[in-house]
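User: Please predict structures.

Assistant: First:
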Amino acid sequence: MQTVLKETTGVGAEHQQYLTFRLGEETFAMPILMIKEILEYPEMTSVPMMAPCVRGVLNLRGRVVPVVDLAVRFGRAASKPTRRTCVVILEVQTAEEQLDVGIIVDGVNQVIDIPAADIEPPPSFGARLRTDFIRGMGKVNGGFVVILDSSTVLSIHEIAALGMVTEAGTAS
């Protein structure tokens, strides 16, 4: 598993820091090196004919940043904004370019260190997420934190394809 972590993060992974956040009652994590900033739930502009998981776009210092509702991306009901709801801005590398993408989360918890030895491979069955969305299961305080694979969860090509399917389904 250590080799995979080194390849996907570009850093030696004796210990790696992760931002933990909540979606509903579940805790997830992403490598801190991908996080650009965390925003209070902002005003967003909705964009017609986008995938259902794309809540809209926001203006981040003059740049257009798409915002993905992670709950919808995981096949759940759309997030209902609360006082703790925020948007985490991530830097996502595609084959062509580097993009900023926002994800809506129900609350940010903390930054934690998870030693590489405490990261197990994704479960082969029984997870409530697609296993390709899961990079690993971090052992933390006697439980597990789901470490997401952002390149799959936020795959621009897959999200765009979902938008085309939705558009085709509503056009008939």
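Second:
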Amino acid sequence: MHIQGSHWSAAVATTADGTSGRNTPLRVDAQRNLEHVLRAAREVFGELGYGAPMEDVARRARVGVGTVYRRFPSKDVLVRRIAEEETARLTEQARTALGQEDEPWSALSRFLRTSVASGAGRLLPPQVLRVGVEVEPEEHRVQAQVPDRARVPQQRQPGVTGGQLHELRLVEQRPTMVDDRDDAGAAALLEVVGRLVDRARSAGELRADVTVADVLLVIATAAPSLPDAAQQAAASSRLLDILLEGLRSRPLA
């Protein structure tokens, strides 16, 4: 998934749902245009990434680009709307799998299959994919990459572990324009997917080293964008079968 050309700006004139904040209902034609724009944006960003221009969205929606900008005064607003919807969609899919599947592995695999089939993974916001990434211990990474004269002692807060310190660094590296609403949606998704992962791992059906980030990465990469819908569905199903086999725990010989 390509994240380019978007700053996730919070300084916008409209609300995150693309409205101006007024209580006046949209006219029928305006509501229809909004639905066309949102559907087109999901398709275009899913195929080309969030770097795709607004003109591409307008062409796919068969409206003028001015119509798009009347609903979404900046590309950032439209990107946030789509990313929020996809995060909420994945969260609901995870909750459904958790609530309707008694077997831990069945719940996790159902969530993955449903999410990949919906194509939601191609539209995950970047802050979701960053969470939980594991790296080498800081001292090893610094020693390997930074010349002696440029090394600076790492300032570590009392009582903070290396893993926690890394999480703090991740937070610091997130775009400063990401607001609390974005973080709340990401946190809800991470929490429920974490429960699916914990259940499958505790049952001995999921590899012990698999993390929530790994599961989200599967969703983000197992839905290739192909011009033929039937080919895309077949390719996604095949790729997911292979990835699921890689996630499963194997008994020791």
